[in-house]
Amino acid sequence: MDLSSFDLIHILPFIGVGFAAQVVDGALGMAFGVISNTLLMSLGVPPAAASAGVHSVETFTTAVSGISHAVHRNVDWKLFLRLMIPGVIGGALGAYVLSNIDAAVVKPFILVYLTGIGIYLLLRALRHRPNVREPKIVEPLGLIGGFLDAAGGGGWGPVVTSNLLAQGATPRLTIGTVNTAEFFLTATISATFITQLGWGAFTMATLGLLIGGVLAAPFGAMLAKRIPPQRLLLMVGIIVTLTSLWGLYNAFK
C-alpha cells in the first residue's frame, strides 16, 4: 500500500461500508467478511487478495469487538475455547487452500445449506420463543467455520453463529463468544495469507474498511446486550438468508 496516494474522499465510501458492516457483525455475530468481500470483488479484486485484505482488517476490528463483548459480559469462556482452537486450525488450512487452489466450486453448496439454516432460524423466531439449550456440536463447527471463512472469503459468523443458535444456544452469549474467538481466527488467517501472498493485498480500500470497522466495533457489543433474544434470532435469520441468497445469485448468474 502506497500511503503517498492517500485520498480521504476516495476511501470515505470504504470507511462507511466498514462502519456499517462492523455494527451488524458486532450485534449479530456475522456479515463483516461477507459484505466487505462482496464489495472488494465487485471492484475486481481477486478472491484470494480480497479475503487476505479483509482478514487483515478483521484482525483489528475483532480485537476491539472482542474486548467490548468481554466488558459487556457477552462471552461464554468455555464455549470460546471449544470454538477458538479448531477455528484457528481450520482457518490456517483454508487460507493455504485458497492461496494455492480455487475453492469456489464448493461455495454454492455451502450457500444452499446456509440459506436453509437462515430460513429455519426465521421460523423459530417467528413461531415461538427460543428454547435455550447447551449446544452439543461445537468443535466441528469451529473447524469447518474457520476453513470456510478463509477459503470462501467469509463464513465464520454465518456458519458458527447460525448453527449454535439452531442448537438452542443463548443469542447474546453466542454472538459475543463467536466474535471474540474470531480475533484469533483472523490473526491466523492473515498471517497465513501474508506468507503466501505478501502484503500486496492491503490496499487503500482495506485501510478504509479498517478505519470504519474499528470506529464501529464497540457499538455492536452494546446492541447485542440490549436487543431481546427473540429479536436477535430473527435478525440473524434475516441476515443469513439474504446474504446466502445473494451469494447464490452471484455464483450462478
Automatic annotation (TrEMBL):
It is a multi-pass membrane protein. Belongs to the 4-toluene sulfonate uptake permease (TSUP) (TC 2.A.102) family. The chain crosses the membrane at residues 12-35, 79-98, 104-123, 199-220, 232-252. InterPro entries: TM_pro_TauE-like (IPR002781), TSUP/Inactive_protease-like (IPR051598). This is Probable membrane transporter protein. GO terms for cellular component: plasma membrane. It comes from the Bacteria. It is found in: Cell membrane; Membrane. Keywords: Cell membrane, Membrane, Transmembrane, Transmembrane helix.
